[in-house]
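When time allows, look over one protein, given below as sequence and C-alpha cells. The question is which stretches look regular and which look disordered:
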Amino acid sequence: MQLRVITSVFFLLAACGNGRPAGPTAVIERQGRTPVTVALEVVRTPAELQKGLMWRSELADFTGMLFVFPQEEEHSFWMKNTLIPLDMIFIARDGPTAGRIVGVHANAVPHSTAPVTVGKPSTWVLEVPGGWCAREGVQAGDVVRLEGVAPP
C-alpha cells in the first residue's frame, strides 16, 4: 500500500514538471502580490455549463471549474443542488485567453436558488472553494491568464 502511494505521488509530481499543475490553468496576477495558479476543469458545452459543480462534496484549494461562454454578457448562476460554498470570479475578456476580473461573489450559499451575478459582462466565470478569494487576496481588477484553454 505504501509503495503504491509513493509511486502515485511520484507520477503526479512528474506530470507537473516544474511544480505547476498539469493541464489547463488560470494564472491570477494579483495587485501587489505574486501570481497564484489554479488548476482548471473547463466546461463549455450546454450540458456541462448547466451541471457545473452540482452534487460535488468537495473542491480542493487551488483548483476550480472554468465556465467558458460563447459571448461576453452578464451571467447569472444559482447554487441549487450545489453542496459546497463557492467563490465565483467573473472575468471579462481582454484578449483570446486573458481577462480582467470584473467582480467576485464570495461564499455563494449551497442549495440557494437566488441568482448570483456581479452585474457586469463576462466571458469566463471561475468557481473556486468558498473563502479562497479572501484568503488569497483575489479581487476585482486582477488579471487572469488562461493557459491550455482554447478561446471561446
